Amino acid sequence: MGKAKFGIFGDGKEVAQIAMAKVFREGDFRSGYYRDQTFMFAIGELTVQQYFAQLYAHTDVEADPASAGRLMNGHYATRMLDEHGHLKNLTSLKNSSADISPTAGQMPRLLGLAYASKLFRNNPALKQYTGLSLNGNEIAFGTIGNASTSEGMFFEAINAAGVLQVPMLTSVWDDGYGISVPAEYHTTKASISKALAGLQRTKTEKGFEIITVRGWDYAGLIEAYQRAEKICREEHVPVLMHVEEMTQPQGHSTSGSHERYKSKERLAWEAAHDCIRKMREWIIDEVMVLPEEVDQVEKEAKQSAKQARDRAWKAFTEDIKKDQHAVTQILEQAEKESARASEIEEIRIELIKSINPTRLDTMKAAKKALRVLRYEEQLESRAALIRWIEKAEIDNHSRYSSHLYSESDESALKVEQIDPVYSETSSIVDGREVLQMCFDAALARDQRVLAFGEDVGKIGDVNQGFAGLQQKYGDLRVTDTGIRECTIIGQGIGLALRGLRPIAEIQYLDYFIYALQTLSDDLACLHYRTKGGQKAPLIIRTRGHRLEGVWHAGSPIGMILHSLRGIYVLVPRNMTQAAGFYNTMLKSDDPALIIECLNGYRLKEKLPDNIGEFTLPLGVPEILKEGSDVTIVTYGSMCRIVMEAAEALENAGVSCEVIDVQTLLPFDIHHRIVESVKKTSRVVFADEDVPGGTTSFMMQQVLEVQDAYRYLDAKPLTIAAKEHRPAYASDGDYFTKPSAEDVFEEVYTLMRDCDPEKYPSLY
């Protein structure tokens, strides 16, 4: 009827989902996809009215608890946080982590949810957290379509689960197609269970349990899921449940028809083997229920669904019509007051004639009328219209744009600042030792803190930040992983969702792209897409900027900034700053990416006496050198380069004020940089990203957001790396990325343009 923009459904998958729901207990977690409506109904975490509210995009969190209208239908989530943004008792809830649309994107998170159970069972120090787990008895249930098992994320997560031996029960809903493409184009042997047969555990080798069952066979499904649950819950062995012979009677979604690509024979088979039809036959033949009794149940079910649909639509439209009515009344008043009454009347009539009006219709009408009334400033109706628009914009921010970051009392922006303390006995150590002592203190302070990644465990990471800590705290707290960036992040997301405090390491920033999709589609928008219903305060640790060559000197920060809104991006210039950020984030409930300087681990730093306690505030730049002629804004490894150039420029008569932004998300929340520009009237932005990358972001923040353009006497300048990745060796670094000489010449030329007599040409 056009009341919803788009529909995607789980028809043909109902009976298997009912069977799965029978073994899903309080404390368990789901990480699934958009076909799981029946399962969510069956566990009592979705009503039919809520289902339709999501279909209509009702922005009331009570109407659509999963996403408050932010996601298209079929995206399910339970509210794991209370009204203050704190975790509820997860062991008393049936938990569903928030769905995303990218197929197989749920798999990395699923691995982490299951891995948490292993930690809760095997680490005695975690037994005290009874609101998070009951001895690790919880299963992580995953669901995925057969075609999506072709995705690399699926294979990576399945392999990791087999290695880790975690209670991960993955159900593959197999209807033989991926939209229009049949299984033989997707999967070797056209069967994921056959393709993965090598994972099957034996008497002497650990692995997966693989179970196949038909999607229309209710009795077989019940038996299969009871067996799978016992293996997962008691033995902590992962299970792959391949549910074959399913159907998809409505096609992929409302935007297409399956009749376009299925043969008449296939369509006839699907009609005969529809799981609801087969369930009806089983109820009549095996349970001995009379057909007319089943007919009555079906009739009542249809009526109940229609009533729920109507209630959802009524609640949705009444909410919207409140605004429509308010603006209509204001426009009626404006018609009486304005000399341009006919134009206002036309706008009002157009608004009230809207079929199935939306908020955008009302806002468009209000703003169109305001343009008409722009010359009649004295009208009360104009003032009323302005008041309505201002309030509506606040309300719409809450509806559509709130909770990108935490709004709780544990927000990273609310962590108390504790300055580092130094004394006469403070040691001078390598930067890596500063980090090692910071991590040591964090692991000792909070049993929920753990770290994992490639080479993090036995050797203490490639730069020794965790040296000796696995031996001290055990391999459940400081853990090696395989080379699998995507699921390292997924592991961290799942652990953080379950109340632990993971630090997930991506060894080099150059390999961060492997993890970028999971970070962007899942973690960065988690708090947003649930409107504060779920959080995963994961810390991602990595290292980047300058060192050697194409894949060990990357600084693609612009890519990160544009992909990861919702995750704080922290860019410390040294390891002491990094330690302060780790301490801050471990006290907060926000996720963060902390990028250490790859060439800073062996540089000497003074060790704070309070290494485990001091914190750094986010969004607060630091002035490294005061000056009066030009402001240079930078971060990370470039701080040392810029400081070297600034000293040389001082000798040439140019006084530079050097500012380390320290964090890019958030960026200078108190607008301190503009105060420097007011003094110098010139600004330069320098970094190691490509031209137009992060330098452009910083320029936009300072010139546009902070209005620094008002105070400039010269054009703003950016200093960036070359457009290509850095070449190998010291010369490759020098001629690819900005050097102290480059910074000197660019800034000197800027000053020469202002005063050529004082600053004669260098060439």
Q: How are the secondary structure elements laid out?
A:
Layout: H1 14-22, E1 29-31, H2 37-42, H3 48-56, E2 95-96, H4 106-122, E3 140-145, H5 152-164, E4 168-173, E5 177-178, E6 181-182, H6 192-195, E7 209-214, H7 218-235, E8 239-244, H8 264-273, H9 275-285, H10 291-337, H11 341-352, H12 359-372, H13 380-400, E9 428-430, H14 431-445, E10 449-453, H15 469-473, E11 478-480, H16 485-497, E12 501-505, H17 513-529, E13 539-544, H18 557-563, E14 568-570, H19 575-586, E15 592-597, E16 604-606, E17 622-625, E18 630-634, H20 638-651, E19 656-660, E20 663-665, H21 672-680, E21 683-686, H22 694-705, E22 717-719, H23 729-736, H24 740-754
Parallel strand pairs: 1-2, 1-3, 3-4, 4-8, 7-8, 10-11, 10-12, 12-13, 13-15, 14-15, 18-19, 18-21, 21-22
Antiparallel strand pairs: 5-6, 9-16, 14-20, 17-19
Helix pairs in contact: 1-7, 3-10, 4-5, 4-16, 10-11, 10-12, 10-13, 11-12, 12-13, 14-19, 16-17, 20-24
Key terms:
763 residues; alpha/beta; seven-stranded mixed sheet; six-stranded parallel sheet; globular
